[in-house]
Each structure stands twice: as structure tokens, then as C-alpha cells.
Amino acid sequence: MRPRVQVLEPELIASIVEEAKRLLAGIGMEVRGPKLRQRLLDHGLPMDAAGTRILFPREVVEAAIATAPSSFVLHDRDGNPYADLGGDRVHFVPGSSGLKILDHRTGEARLANTADFVEYIRIGDGLEHIAYLATAFSTNADIEAQVSDAWRLYLALTNSKRPVVSGAFTEHGTLRMIEMMQLFRRDRADLIAHPMSIFTITATGNFRYSEDSCQNLIDCVEAGVAVEIVPVTLMGLIAPVTVVGATVFHTVDVLAGITMAQLIRPGAPVLFGGAPATFHMKIASSPMAAIEAQQLNVAYVEVAKSLGLPTQAYMALSDAKVVDAQAGAETFGSALLAALAGVNSVSGPGMLDFLLVFSLPKLVLDDELCGEALRFVRDVRTLDDLPTDRLVHQVIDEQHLIMADHTTQHWPSELYLPGKVYDRDNRENWTKAGSLDAYGRAVAEVERRLAAYVPPETDPAIDAELQRIIRSGLVSQTVLPEVPPPSDAATAAAATAAGAAPGRRHNPRRGR
After folding, report:
1. What is the pTM of this model?
2. Distance CA 337, CA 333 (A)
3. What is the pLDDT of residue 173?
4. pLDDT digits 0-9 by tens, 246-258
5. How far apart, in whole angstroms, are the C-alpha atoms of residue 420 and residue 400?
6. What distance in Å separates the CA atoms of residue 30 and residue 334, rounded to the nearest whole number?
7. Which residues contact residue 215 at a Cβ distance below 8 angstroms, ignoring those fewer than 6 apart?
8. Exposed/middle/buried for residue 81 (C-beta within 10 Å: 0-12, 13-18, 19+)
9. Cα–Cα distance, 424 to 417 (Å, whole number)
10. Maximum CA pair distance of the chain?
11. What's the pLDDT at 487?
12. Cβ–Cβ < 8 Å for 456, 463
């Protein structure tokens, strides 16, 4: 049996889906992209009486749900199958949309640059429980905004072979990125057959899809890029403060996106996703790690599974400003809920401060937290332990089971043994090792991994073409930022280790 969590009764799920279909047929969606709106009209979808909203008849929505695949496979840069998204198969992925990085060398939250992003990819590429990567935070400190999405994709593609979650923040940015990914496939048909990325399509709330989201949806679906439909459902602000009401609003937004994707290209892979948050009534913030937001995550995932659709959620993250006890508690709590709910693609590791700030030490710490969550949801089954007479007699005779055949056979697969970031040693050895807390150990692990990183080989001709595509979008910038080679990362790591202590010690006095 696989451990799981449930927050909605099947009858309530059916009522939520029914209400969402009713709203789509009667209220509809404001589709601000003129090309997508025209396509929907060409498919026979009606408009409301005011002529401003597209209505989604029940039969069209139900046909789209039936057409959307229940699972799909992401492939790596070389075209090999890498991650099967569907069922209860869980994959943890770094969060996206960060605006700053929390510099682990200075403690400063600042705008990120190319060197920061390269370090992130090189760290993420070697993490065992981070399934694939994401263009996690902006690099606007040293690249023009209109090509920054493509630049981060370039850095990901040339420093790792793993699939990547990405997206464009401009109306026509997706086409450039698709052209880049196609360089690693024979042709467009090969890219459709062997997708290597998931692009985020954001439903903007208030039953609306923006011009950017509409155009990006068309471009992605036509090119065979898998998409995740991600409403930012703010409970108490633009959605009901109650879990059931918010789940209805959320479901309306996602089903509209899934329906539009299937009308563009039937069978297009689409994830039923989301990035919900509550609205803090006293200080006007939007905590994504709030327990009610986590309940909404689990609720809409249950709705998606009832429809046979693959799922995505922003979980395994924290609203804390630094990697502290709050960050660990919020991240592990939501990571465990995501695993129990069977979320197929969990975006969040590495993220702090309402998805605004990314932290490399948090990412390596989160790798351990995600590993524990994945261990918890493995099937519980008998393993030569029923009946237990033999084990009972052995422990009575020998006073332990350390050397028992049953122990030596099963402990390597049954016990999760964390890496260097976790402390499971006694206090004496912990003190001898420097008395570092979890953050200090995580910083040291970041530097160790950077020094050990070995890059994948990239065809020089493909690399040159990737850079040409990006340069074609530059307006005032004349050259692309310099990408630090791995040897520079090792040198920086050595210099850091020789200078100021890379992490903080237990219970330090720190400026904020």
C-alpha cells in the first residue's frame, strides 16, 4: 500500500468539477490574446452576451479532458526517457520565478547574474532527489530582460542534460526558446515526440488569460512543449477564502487552459497545476507556505486525479527570508504533503520569501528533505517479516538483530541515510567537526559540489548557434555575459574555504 493523504470526499470532488463546468459554460473566460480568441471562435466556442468573454460549453470541456493524456514522459537533452509524469509518481523540481538570489558567501539578497545561475545549474545537476531542473531565478543583472529567459535556458542546456521547467515572460519569447531546444532534436516532430521541457502558462486570475499567456500557450502546444497551467489562486483576495470555493475557482482556470491546449493540438501534454497562496489580512502579504494554501494544493490535485490528469504544484518551499527553522519546517511539511498527494511535478525546492529569492544552500538541504518525503511514500509491504517467529527468537537469543540475515539483506533499501547536510552523529563528533548547524553544512556542501562539477559536452556548433539565437534578440547589449568555466568555480570554492568561514556556526549572532 502506498501512503497517501485525502482532504476531499469523492462526492465533493464531483460537485466541485460540476460547478467548474457550469461556470465555464455560463461565465466563461476573458481570453485577451487575439490569436487564441479567434482560434476558439473558429472552433465554434460562443461568446457571452456582452461579447467580451469566451464561453466553454460542457461538451467541449469534457472532450478536452478525455483527449488530454493521463501521463507523459520528459526526455533529457540526448532524447533519452527521463521522467514519467502521471499516476502518483512524484518528482521534485527547483522553484521558478525568483527575482533575487540569497548569496551564501555574503548573506546578501541581491539581483542575480550569470555566474549565480551557472552555479545553481551545476549544483542542481548532481542532486539525487531533484528530478530535473528549472530556470529558477532571473539574471537581469547582466543580460537584457527581453532575452533573459532564453539566456537562462541556454545556461541550463549547456551545463546539464536534465529536462528543464521554464517559460517566457514576454509574448513572443517562447519561439526563441523552442528554436534553441530543437537544436538537440532532428526536427520539430522529434521535439514533439521527445519533449525535454515543461513551460509554465499562468492563468492571471479573475477568470482571465493575458496576452502573454495566450500566445505562449499557442507557441508551446504547437511545438510539442509540455505545459503546466498554473493559476495563482489567492484565497481571500481574488478567490474565496474557503478551501472548497477556492478549489472551484482554481479548477475553472485550469480546465480553461487544458481545453484551449487540446483545441490547439489534441493530445498535447498538459499538467493540472497551480501556485496558490492565502492573503494575509493584516499585513497584505501572500504566504504560499500557509497551511490553507497547502490544503488547497492537495484539494486541486485530488480534483485533477479524479479527471485522470497529471499534476503540478508549488510546494516544498518556504516564505522565510533565510534558511532557518521556519524554512525547514515549511519546506518539509509541504514536501511530505506533496509526496502523499502524489503530485507529479513539485516546484519549490530552493525557494524563499514568497518565491522571490533563491538559495543554493536551501536547495541542497531541500534535496535531503525531498529524499525523506519520497522514502515515506514508498509502498509498505511484507519483506520476510510475517510471521515474525524467526526474528523474535533471534533477538531473544542474541539480544540484537544487527547481524541478522534479515537486517543485512534489507537495511540498504529500507533505511534512508541522509548525506553531509544532515547531522546524525553524536555531540562530541559534531563539535570536533566545527559545530556547524544545518545552514553551515549546506554551504559547505554547495562549495564541495561546485568544486567537483564536471560539465556535459556540448557540440561547439550547437553552442555557437544557441548564442546566435540569443544575440539576435539583443537591443542595446553588444556581447553576452561571460560564462565561468568549472575551473573558476573550483578556484572560487578554494578561495572561499581559505577565507571567511563558508557557513554560520550554531546559534550565531547575525545581522538581518
Report:
1. 0.93
2. 6
3. 85
4. 999 999 999 999 9
5. 28
6. 32
7. 33, 35, 36, 171, 172, 174
8. exposed
9. 9
10. 83
11. 58
12. no
Cell of 404: 541478522
Contact of 80 with 358, CB cutoff 8 Å: no
- Three cell numbers written together for 422: 544532515
Whole-angstrom distance, CA of residue 364 vs CA of residue 122? 12
Residue 262 pLDDT: 98
Each residue's pLDDT tens digit, 264-313: 999 999 999 999 999 998 999 999 999 999 999 999 999 999 999 999 99
* Residue bearing the bigger pLDDT, 316 or 493: 316
Do the Cβ atoms of 154 and 470 come closer than 8 Å?
A: yes
Residues in the chain: 512
- Three-state SS sequence of 118-166: HHHHHHHCCCCCECCEECCECCCCCCCHHHHHHHHHHHHHHHCCCCEEE
Convert the pLDDT of each residue in 79-113 to its tens digit: 999 999 999 999 999 998 899 999 999 999 999 99
What is the C-alpha to C-alpha distance for residues 232 and 273, in angstroms, rounded to an integer? 10
Q: How far apart are CA 96 and CA 166, in angstroms?
A: 8
Question: What's the confidence (pLDDT) of residue 198?
Answer: 98
Beta bridge partners of 130: 92
Ramachandran region of residue 105, left (φ > 0), alpha (ψ -120 to 50) or beta? alpha
- Whose CA is closest to 247, among 23, 86, 67, 3? 23
Determine contact, residues 180/225, Cβ cutoff 8 Å: no
Above pLDDT 70, what percent of the chain? 95
- Rounding to the nearest 10 degrees, give the CA dihedral for residues 36, 39, 45, 47: 50
What is the phi/psi pair of residue 93, to 5°? -135, 140
The vertex-188 CA angle with 187 and 193, nearest 5°, equals 100
